[in-house]
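U., I forgot to send this yesterday:
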Amino acid sequence: MGPTEEVGKVASGFIAALQEQPLALALVVCNLTLLALFFYVINQSTLNRTREFSATQEMQREVQKLLYNCSPDKPQG
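Result:
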């Protein structure tokens, strides 16, 4: 028996087991949906954090420029 036939047999057994127990199928669907939701939330959180970090860096650069221009000891030239 080849690997393709074995995979087919296992898949058929899995589908038959899910048909007998629809609650198991519902749990599989819920788990996959939850994983997709977690991926989306983490992805959006990472993008938001990246934007916040960039904005913070830009604000710090602006503050540094302002402080440098206000300093009486800045080098001339």
